[in-house]
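Let's practice the habit of predicting before peeking. Look at the sequence and jot down your guess about where helices and strands might fall. Then scroll down.
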Amino acid sequence: MSNKITRVLLVEDNAVSARLAEAMLSHTEAQDFEVRHADSLLAALDLLVHHVFDVAVVDLNLPDSQGLDTFLTIQRFAPALPVIVLTGLDDESMALSAMRQGAQDYLVKGKLNREMFVRVLNYALVRNKKPDTGTHVPETATVVGLLGSKGGVGTTTLACHWALELHRQTGKKVLLLELDVCSTGASFLLKPDSKYTLLDAAQNLHRLDAHLWSGIVCSPRDGLDLLRAPGAAGLSDAPTAERIRQVLRFARTRYDWIVVDLGRLTASSQAIMEEINDVFVIATPDLPALYETTRLVKRLLEGGFTPQKLHALLNRKEKAMSISVDQFEKAIGYPLYGSIGDHSEEINGAYVKGRFLDENLQLRKQMAPIMQKWLGIEQAPVRAGLWFLRSARTV
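Done guessing? Here is the structure:
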């Protein structure tokens, strides 16, 4: 019978030391090890996006990170992963500091042998299997993505007001993440006072902490933080999907809710779909949007999203549409979660007057019952004639 494979993340910039460690773990009779090697902290974080590891062996001094910060960064992005510190002969004090911060153990490079290496790995695995004591595990943010069926359907406007309404309904702090890296739509609408963007967060993953994060995001409104997209200026250095996913994972530990303006479906937005809890596909009542909505819904369902997590939202619904809601649903082959009227003129006027974020806009009033339905909040009775407050139909 084959042995269970122990998956090891080895973070070591010295090629000779890395090959030696890999060789020690490749010639063990009683246990099978699968080792993936990273020669920098950023490379290690990228591996953590795509692979699940049982244990990590980490050299604290890397080209892009030095000392205790290396361990603390790994711990932030993979809090459940047991870490063994790999240190030099003269750095044992640093290794002990890491253990006081939560590292399982440490190994000294000059004293390393196969028997000791395997034993320390197994001890770390055993110690990490803590019994269930019923203690509370900190929750991470619920992430909702707004995805346009095509360009020009109002995705960014809805994302801005969705984030604001989410804060109003829950009283919790919300992050609006602008993921359309080629655009700055939310930045244009919200007029934030910040020069930093998603690109800055992605390029500084190896030193991303609460202090740095607070300097990168901005707060265009109380209860709302915004992480801007770099726009066309950052196109040549656009962050990879792996880095975006790590930024999102870091942000999930700091907020209760995250709203992601996905823009249109791209390689980057598709790559982070597994990090998103619910997706709202934004459509408009025109034939090109209807056609693209049909294709997009089908693609997302085939990609693993369930009807409980995938919702179709009709924006700019005119009172006298050429087709009925039933016909629209039949055409896209999927039920509508809700609809919002066409308030383009009001939104444009509000922006010019500096009232774009006003919660008394008709857009927000129509969004409120849809938000309450999604949150599971009981809605107040609807007076006859207020068509825009009717509850959206359930999927």
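How did you do? The first strand starts at residue 5 and ends at 11.
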